[in-house]
Amino acid sequence: MKPPAESLSILKDARWPWVASILACPVCQQDLPVKEGAAGVTCLGCGSVFGQVPETGVLDLRCPGPKTHVLSVRTGVVAFDDLLERVPKDPPRVTYGDSLPPRATAEFMSVIKDGVTSGGLVLEVGGGPGRYRAPILGLGLRFLITDYDSPGADILADAHALPFKTASADALLMQSVSQALENPFVAFREVARVVKKGGMVLGTADCCAVFASSFYNMTPWGLLSVLQASGLAPERLWLTKDALEFCGTNPGYPSLMKPILRALSRLSRLSLLTPRNLLRGRPSDPLVTAGSFAFIARKVE
Ligand SMILES: C[S@@+](CC[C@H](N)C(=O)[O-])C[C@H]1O[C@@H](n2cnc3c(N)ncnc32)[C@H](O)[C@@H]1O
Ligand SMILES: [Zn+2]
Q1: Alpha-carbon distance 157 to 89, whole Å?
Q2: Which of 141, 178, 209, 223 has fewest C-beta within 10 Å?
Q3: Which residues does 200 contact at the CB level (< 8 Å), separation at least 6?
């Protein structure tokens, strides 16, 4: 089905005058668009043609076929370091007070509000339904939501081959996406590539993503390893849900079990039930119990 002419693409939409200036071919990384017609956008660098979702006209900038990535990573950097101990593990100060859609967090909104100057560009990867659209636009920032396959996205894009020029974004948000990545090392390197030096990457990682087609349920240590391999310095990690609570809010489990799991989660936090920690004089690191956790990292290289 041919897309309706009036929805030729986001590139011709007056509400998005800046989008064309940040796009790059996800296959060869040459700047896009170079030629646009009814069939979509053609990259003159590699000849790839990118179409649109027929029903909505949303530009589809996913690679038309598999892509080969060459990656060089160092090991022995995180595993034998005390990096996790040194990273602050409390949530950032909340300065954003407006109401938010479900599952959009005041913590991320506060960091974006205080850390990105007016008119700055925020990209979302794996944005799903686009929970942050209204609040981030409300801050006077430019915001573009990408997802591999969601009707909430402004552009379809794969986190492993992002269709953006290097160093375009001031901040990048990826909430609850890391578990879905086929290759987190490749995808985080892409994420770091499109963020400006000094820019931020904010996200959550689900360690207990059951009932989902996830590849790697990332732990805090796994995340640190991926961040360091991508030139991203962790600034802060904090627990969002422990494993019991995460499972107790997962739609996949029987409704009857979920309140029990949540009650067990609350019980497990009672120090009386963990006398070993009391005797040691210190509570164990809450991140070791993570079902999901949030992170903020900064591009350093
Ligand atoms: C658990 S949902 C999270 C959605 C949204 N960020 C939120 O917080 O509600 C994971 C999202 O990641 C997207 N996704 C999975 N693999 C992806 C990839 N390789 N590139 C981009 N998005 C991807 C899925 O389509 C889905 O919308
Ligand atoms: Zn190309």
Answers
A1: 32
A2: 141
A3: 111, 112, 115, 116, 170, 171, 172, 235, 296, 297, 298, 299
Phi and psi at 16, nearest 5°, equal: -125, 55
* Ligand 1 pocket member 237 (CB < 6 A): no
- Protein residue closest via CA to atom 15 of ligand 1: 180
- Domains of the chain, by residue range, sit at 5-59, 83-242+282-299
Q: Hey, what are 282's tokens? A: 């210190």
Give 150-174 pLDDT, tens digit per residue.
999 999 999 999 999 999 999 999 9
In short, whether 130's Cβ falls inside 6 Å of ligand 1 is no
Q: Which residues contact 123 (CB under 8 A, 6 or more apart)?
A: 143, 144, 146, 164, 168, 169, 171, 172, 173, 194
**Residue 277 has what pLDDT?**
66
Nearest C-alpha to atom 27 of ligand 1 is from which residue? 128
Query: What integer best gives the mean pLDDT of the chain?
Result: 90
Phi–psi pair at 161, nearest 5 degrees: -150, 75
Contact 171, 116 (CB under 8 A): yes
Helices 220-229 and 184-194 pack at an angle, to 10 degrees, of 50
**Averaged pLDDT for residues 207-231:** 92
- Classify domain 83-242+282-299 by CATH number: 3.40.50.150
Helix, strand, or coil here: 23? strand
pLDDT class of 283 with cuts at 50, 70, 90: low
